[in-house]
Specification:
This protein has 512 residues and is α+β, with helices and mostly antiparallel strands. The chain has 3 domains: 204 residues, Beta Polymerase, domain 2 (2-Layer Sandwich), CATH 3.30.460; 169 residues, no CATH class; 41 residues, no CATH class. Helices cover 44% and strands 10% of the residues. α7 crosses α10, α13 crosses α17 and α20 packs antiparallel against α21. The longest helix is centred in the last third of the chain and has 16 residues. It starts with a helix and ends in a 6-residue tail after the last helix.
């Protein structure tokens, strides 16, 4: 059976036992977003659009936040029974009301092998299916366990400090109250298609508004501030003033970097305008805890001749939005987006005014400690940091090379330094110059791609190796490193292998 057919079978068995099953959360939201009623969005959700549960476990995530197309309500042209397998490729979340845990498990055992993610959370799965089956529950924030990092007096509450209470007879309205936003608080009867909307989510969905469900429950989970910002960016929604005000009072310092990076990554990789994520956090006064370097870009001046758009913040926001149109072609999309986000942090420590002009000489290198601090705070992946720290010092070189029509040897060296040569071109295109000196110049991507091809052709040609030196009669030793480095310079200069080998054999490395 497909996942949708399995969900229907669960609902039928639950009904026979006296219960009722509902699609919940993002599953319902995305059906309405993609329906003819509201029009298909430019950035439909994916199965990754889950609100992490208070337990912090991937298995214990909040059901109903996955993105997929649910079955339409009565009167629609599509029903559960008629749904095609093509709609059955994303996680499905259902909530079963009116059955005890033992009854629900008995229902599920009639369908397949039951997976239980935690008895205290009332969340189950079925082997071989992307379905989460949950029971209605309430959550209450509690103090961190004794001895944990968050247990010290005055320590901020993190994402994991909750008690969960399963209650099969809680009722649909109270069960939906713990959801983050009204658009995620709708429920749809699996069998009848009836949509329950106790908090006005459908109206907010049509209006493109993100509005929290409940002041008390929303404020207990600080991750929702970042989640709000990434949803605003993903769906191009406006955040309700009451929600902005509530988010501005919440403390994000207890969140783990993994949770923060998860929301950042969704905004950078899935939004057509990632700037909305940061602009939303700015409107909430919530940049300072996790993105203080970005906050310092606000109001930081630039020379209006080269940057008529305004301060470094405005420039950076424009760059990441342009970069979003190139990320699919980038070799490392997430790393590329971080590169575009952080490329001008060096202007924080280098910007000065001289003779009536604003300069930031050396910002591409002097800002590396700031970038390293940002990355250390946000991610634990050294490969991500290595990529960004390698590429930032190079980010101005492609446009300079294109303007001056630099030699092939010069552009070969530039690309050879880059961790991702093609991404360096996309960085230059996203940076989008307007002037070079006193001459208007908006870039020349055709030139850069031609030179990238030349570099790739050079690197594909035969070249001198250590084996060649040994076969020529040299004994391996420390000086081999110098000889091979010289051979690589000749390679980048376009010297053919035979000629390069002769020159290398005559080369005398300088002595220290």
């Amino acid at each position: 059976m497909t996942d949708l057919e399995t969900a229907k079978r669960i609902a039928e068995l639950a009904a026979q036992a006296g219960g009722r099953a509902y699609f919940v959360g993002g599953f319902v939201r995305d059906e309405l977003l993609c329906s003819a009623e509201t029009g298909e969005p430019s950035n439909p959700c994916s199965a990754e659009d889950v609100e992490p549960s208070s337990s912090g476990s991937a298995a214990d995530r909040e059901p109903g936040s996955s993105g997929s197309a649910a079955d339409r309500e009565p009167g629609s042209s599509v029903s559960i029974a008629a749904s095609s397998d093509s709609a059955d490729h994303k996680d499905i979340d259902i909530e079963v009301h009116g059955l005890s845990p033992q009854q629900l498990r008995g229902v599920l055992e009639q369908v397949g092998e039951v997976l239980q993610y935690g008895s205290s959370f009332g969340i189950y799965g079925l082997a071989g299916h992307s379905i989460d089956i949950a029971m209605p529950r309430k959550e209450r924030a509690v103090s961190a366990p004794q001895g944990s990092p968050d247990s010290a007096a005055g320590a901020p509450r993190g994402h994991r400090d909750f008690e969960v209470f399963v209650d099969p007879f809680l009722g649909t309205t109270e069960a939906a109250r713990r959801r983050d936003f009204t658009i995620n608080a709708m429920m749809q009867d699996v069998l009848t298609g009836e949509i329950l909307d106790p908090f006005g989510g459908r109206a907010d969905l049509k209006a493109g508004i993100l509005r929290h469900v409940d002041d008390a429950s929303f404020a207990e989970d600080p991750l929702r501030v970042l989640r709000c910002a990434q949803f605003a960016a993903r769906f191009n929604f406006t955040v309700a003033p009451q929600t902005i005000a509530l988010c501005s009072r919440m403390d994000l310092s207890g969140l783990s970097r993994e949770r923060v990076e998860g929301e950042l990554k969704k905004a950078l990789l899935k939004a057509s305008k990632p700037s909305v994520f940061f602009e939303t956090l700015r409107s909430m006064d919530q940049l300072g805890t996790w993105f203080p370097e970005l906050q310092q870009l606000i109001g930081l001046p630039q020379d209006p001749v080269y940057h008529p758009e305004g301060d470094v913040w405005t420039h950076t926001m424009q760059v990441i939005d342009r970069a979003a149109s190139h990320r699919a072609e980038a070799s490392e999309p997430y790393r590329f987006m971080l590169l575009t986000l952080l490329h001008d942090l060096g202007k924080i420590v280098t910007t000065e005014e001289k003779n009536g002009r604003i300069h930031a000489y050396g910002h591409e290198t002097l800002g590396l400690p700031l970038i390293e601090a940002f990355l250390r705070r946000i991610t634990g992946e050294q490969a991500v940091a290595d990529y960004v720290l390698n590429m930032v010092p190079l980010h101005m070189k492609p446009n300079m090379a294109a303007f001056s029509k630099a030699s092939v040897k010069s552009t070969n060296h530039m690309f050879d330094e880059a961790a991702a040569p093609k991404d360096l071109i996309y960085m230059a295109m996203s940076d989008k110059p307007v002037m070079s000196g006193s001459t208007p110049f908006t870039g020349d991507s055709a030139f850069l791609f031609e030179r990238l091809q030349a570099y790739q052709d050079t690197m594909a040609a035969p070249f001198v190796t250590g084996k060649d030196l040994i076969e020529a009669g040299l004994q391996p030793g420390e000086y081999f490193h110098d000889l091979l480095a010289y051979a690589h310079k000749l390679r980048l200069a376009g010297i053919d292998k035979a000629t390069a080998l002769k020159q290398v054999l005559r080369y005398k490395p300088p002595r220290n």
